[in-house]
Amino acid sequence: MEIVWLIMFLASMCMCLFLISKVWFKWQTSPVIVTVPFPSVTICPQSKCKVSVYNFTDMNVNLDQIVPVYLHNTSSLNETMINELIKFYGMSQICDALDSTYYLGENYRYTDASIVENFLETSPDYDDVFFSCKLNGNYMLCPDLFDKVVTSEGICYTMNSLAASDILRTTRLQRDYPNRASPDVEVVLQEYHVRDKLCATLLDLVYIQHPADLPQSSLYYYAVLNSQVSSMALSFSILNSSDRLRSYDAEIRQCYFPDERYLKYFNIYTASNCMIECLSNITYQLCGCVNFYMPHSSSNRICTQYDDNCVQNARETMLHRESSQEDYVCHCLPSCNSVDYDAEILKTDFNLQKLIGTIDKIYKLPDKNELESYNYSKLEIYFKKPRFLSMRRSELFGIIDFLANCGGLLGLFLGFSFLSLMEIIYFVTLR
């Protein structure tokens, strides 16, 4: 009998130590102070089209005279004119056409990947957008810090985003995205005085997103205005999930682990990437084409201005289905391990022309007139705090909590334990 009691005592000790180790692990992995990565920053300049390369406004006026003639006489346009029309309608995706576009026939209903080539050909270059760039207090070449990227705003510039092979399934589509960079950025932007008014905005747009998200996937942007310094203080919200939650259904825990949700066009699951893919699928389903900035597998079914209403209806359909839980739902739950970014922005005056004039009085700058033909603005990005608090998603009431509560109540009112349970069995049976 002594051997039985010894075995039960050792078994109880082992179980007690096992459960204590679980409690110890939970305590060790509770919210802690962590260092977080710098986010991906995407800058969309005011000018979307370099007026010296392609004048969208003049083309808009000319087409208002050419196209009506063509509609009455289809042989009046030669191949060169047709190509100009196709290029113009492609640029209309990012510029503001004065009048509604004309339908030239089913052959011109869709466009292909050449629309992106036109964007790259006509977009402002680095020297047109950036005056100077600093990283960690050191000057560097802006092309080494920023890479061109295709977004819904046309050609933008992004830094610290993952490479294409990390974000996208490149076997299914052809897109090129930049490599990662480092934190603490200071950028002086410039805007030429002479610009295409129909193909420009009044401010530079700045998007902040996770490096694993497609550039400019965020719905919210920050504005950088001419003659102003925009200082962005970054803050983070970090949420990790316990692996013990894998045993629960995604609907219960309200999140997906990275390997649980497959995306056709993306290697990495995030809620933003999921929504972009869902929108692309619904747009193709309803319109037979996708917008140029959406991930897609066919480069010959890019929507043109003829499908603007359909594309907008597709977006509204996606939002309606998502809110009403109909048959086709994106079901883009948050990632179980996520980092959300936010920024507080402070604006002050910035007059680089005045500084240029002062320097010119001393050093007699040879290119003063060229420098004064630009408007300037400054963007500063830094951490609000060097470290941030990490939150953890875990079981609210697991098996260990259940045993601890039951054991505590039984012990408090009955003095119960596993050893006393064996005593009961012993006295009921053998004794």
Automatic annotation (TrEMBL):
Keywords (A to Z) from UniProt: Ion channel, Ion transport, Membrane, Sodium, Sodium channel, Sodium transport, Transmembrane, Transmembrane helix, Transport
Transmembrane segments: 6-25, 396-428
Predominant location category: membrane
Presence of keyword Membrane: yes
Name of one Pfam family that matches: ASC
GO CC annotations, alphabetized: plasma membrane
MF annotations from Gene Ontology: ligand-gated sodium channel activity
UniProt-annotated location(s): Membrane
Membrane topology term: Multi-pass membrane protein
PANTHER family: AMILORIDE-SENSITIVE NA+ CHANNEL-RELATED, AMILORIDE-SENSITIVE SODIUM CHANNEL-RELATED
Similarity remark: Belongs to the amiloride-sensitive sodium channel (TC 1.A.6) family.
Protein name from the UniProt record: Uncharacterized protein
Source species taxonomy: Eukaryota, Metazoa, Ecdysozoa, Arthropoda, Hexapoda
